[in-house]
Amino acid sequence: MSETNTSIQIVMPKLAESVVTATVAKWLKQPGDFVEEYEPICEMITDKVTAELPSTATGTLKEILVEEGDTVEVGTVLCMLVDEAAGSTPAVADSSKQDVQSSTSTATTKSDVASVTTKQDSAMKKRYSPAVRKLADEHDIDLSLVTGTGMGGRVTRKDVKQYIASGASSASIPRRREEIIQAAPEAMASPTVEPTQVQSVVQSPTEHHGEVIDGQYEVPIHPIRRIIAERMKQSVTEIPHAWTMVEVDVTNLVQLRSKHKQTFLEKEGVPLSYLAFVMKALVQATKKYPMLNATWSEESIKVNKDVHISLAVGTDDTVSVPVVKHADRKNIAGLSHDIYELTMKARSNKLSPSDVQGGTITLNNTGSFGAIMSQPIITYPQAANVTFESIVKRPVVIDDMIAIRHMVNVCLSLDHRILDGVICGKFLQEIKHQLESYDVNTNIF
User: Is 353 strand, coil or helix?
Assistant: First the structure.
């Protein structure tokens, strides 16, 4: 941020080490609006995440210099603010002008201004600055329970601190858990959450746009979809993909989860996900066969010591890939917490750049929408993408007898520059062994 006279420049910051450009997805403020420091001013899309950009100063938005959909480099001036000390906001100025008009006109205008102000305040009350969100997350606080004293009723850091000091935050934890318990459908406790409606900035491909010509209509390519297309093209162009699969009997795992899922939800406040068990098995297999946790460079193959699992979270229109950091240091309960929290952040468009960086291997779950076999594209520049499919009951032969068991396919897309069939076969067999070794006595903590 730089200041000239009373004007303040809001520039495109460096959101992450590897991010040099970003696209303005949506302006949350318009010229004439008052903006507080740290208040979200626009939504930015990078190749890693969509995030709200907070204002670095307090003032009135004077001019927007970058249009929605434009891609800019770090350091580009996005908009101009006017220091609040330089004059009153347009709303105050309009109010003073109306004082010299007739009483009827004044009453009408004030009513209109009040109506608009009320609508703006209502819309902004649920927008929280990154600093407020971070503080609330640290203390497990439901921000909807905090009374805001900021502009338009917004919650400030001071409000959160006062809420913590009052002791009310401890009472909000069981309430939030109760809400999760009542609202969590079966899909929440399955491998991952069912896809929900995508964030409003992404147009649905089924939404009608423009005139139908020759039986077709056009859907504009949103920046998120363009970035996904570029990344997928890069992956399949540079990485020679290969694919393999194993079939796993998870009957004991189904029984284990059924035994603990309700008490776990009541105690921990998050669903006990199948995906946590799969992630634990993936970690064990990766430790045994670390080449699956590697990346290719022209000079060497770089093997990652730590296991950071990229978790593919999809909606109807887009995919986010938040990362469970240090998955190799966590138990099943801890992994369930991370999976739930990252999934909810992804679906509510609250992922930060740090949430999506550093992944070393990807875990994908197509079982949430009933798929039984898939061949995913590898997350560049990783070496492998493991996919957990839908658990289905099937007749299988055990000791020359037919039995009904819960079966699942685990698929693997691999970089054939780094990996070959033998090591990948052993890797999948280790995942199979880990998943089939679960029983009702397995400790999840």
Answer: helix
Radius of gyration of the chain (CA): 26
Share of the chain above pLDDT 70, in %: 75
- Reported as a pLDDT band with limits 50, 70 and 90, residue 125 is low
Picking from 221, 197, 198, 220, the residue whose alpha carbon sits closest to that of residue 209 is: 220
pLDDT at residue number 419: 96
What kind of architecture, by CATH, is found in domain 130-183? Irregular (4.10)
CA distance 310 to 322: 6
| Helical ranges in 222-331 per DSSP H | 223-238, 251-268, 274-288
Residue 142 among the catalytic residues: no
Looking at residue 51, what is its pLDDT? 78
Predicted TM-score (pTM) of the model is 0.65
Between the CA atoms of 10, 14, 16 and 18, what dihedral angle is there, to the nearest 10 degrees? 140
Q: Which CATH number fits domain 224-436: 3.40.50.2300, 3.30.559.10, 3.40.50.12280, 3.90.180.10?
A: 3.30.559.10
Supply the DSSP string of 68-128, one letter for each residue: TT-EEETT-EEEEEEEGGGS--HHHHHHHHHTTS-HHHHHHHHHHHHHHHHHHHHHHTT--
CA separation for the pair 362, 387 (Å, rounded): 8
Contact 353, 374 (CB under 8 A): no
Instruction: List the Cα angle 126/132/133 in 5-degree steps.
Output: 75
CA distance 287 to 444: 19
Compute the distance between CA of residue 280 and CA of residue 199 in angstroms, rounded to an integer: 30
* 416 belongs to the catalytic site: yes
Catalytic residue (choose from 70, 140, 306, 420):
420
User: In the prediction, which pLDDT does 185 show?
Assistant: 44
- Of the CA atoms within 13 Å of residue 213, those in its CB half-sphere come to 5
Q: Which of 172-181, 182-191, 253-262 has the highest mean pLDDT?
A: 253-262
If one looks up domain 3-87 in CATH, what number appears? Answer: 2.40.50.100
Which residues of the chain form CATH 4.10.320?
A: 130-183
Position with higher pLDDT, 389 vs 201: 389
Range(s) of the chain covered by CATH 2.40.50.100: 3-87
Rounded to the nearest 10 degrees, what angle do helices 251-268 and 421-436 cross at? Answer: 60
The residue from 316, 416, 433, 439 that is catalytic is 416
